[in-house]
Write a structure and sequence with these properties.
Blueprint (H helix, E strand, L loop, with lengths): L12 H8 L1 H18 L2 H32 L5 H24 L9 H24 L6
Helix pairs in contact: 2-3, 2-5, 3-4, 4-5
């Protein structure tokens, strides 16, 4: 057995996968909304709907994982972990509002759906970056 301690963060590759896939899904929704704003072809809006739903599932799983891991390990005072959890909460709320916006009639989703997708994509990127950064803190040399 090694006398090196385990990673103090979220040390699971599964967490990295869950956290890592919310950004591509959000970016896909943003690009679909952007394309829909030019063409008004309903299929682009359908793509965005499904991508928003997928990012909500992933964001909910990542948020639950972060809340449990920070509580169990007592890492709420660790700034990157707390900030990542806060960004995931904000991402989840914005993406939920985005899902409600996308449930409107086709032409009623613009421009609010596009704006919410931009905000959600930026939040997903920041949350993933901070979450993955905080999960590797504390590795023994």
């Amino acid at each position: 057995m090694s006398d090196r301690p385990a990673v103090e963060g979220h040390s699971s590759p599964l967490y990295a996968i869950i956290l890592g896939f919310i950004f591509p899904l959000s970016l896909g929704a943003l690009l679909s909304d952007w394309r829909y704003s030019f063409t008004y072809e309903i299929q682009w809006l359908n793509f965005a709907d499904w991508l928003v739903a997928g990012s909500l599932v992933g964001g909910g799983l990542a948020l639950a994982w972060t809340l449990v891991a920070n509580t169990v390990r007592g890492r709420w005072r660790h700034r990157p972990s707390s900030l990542a959890a806060l960004l995931l909460v904000i991402f989840f709320v914005i993406q939920f509002i985005n899902a409600l916006t996308h449930s409107k009639d086709a032409y009623a989703t613009m421009p609010a759906g596009l704006i919410l997708s931009i905000i959600a994509t930026l939040l997903a990127l920041a949350a993933a970056w901070l979450g993955l950064r905080s999960s590797t803190k504390g590795v023994a040399q």
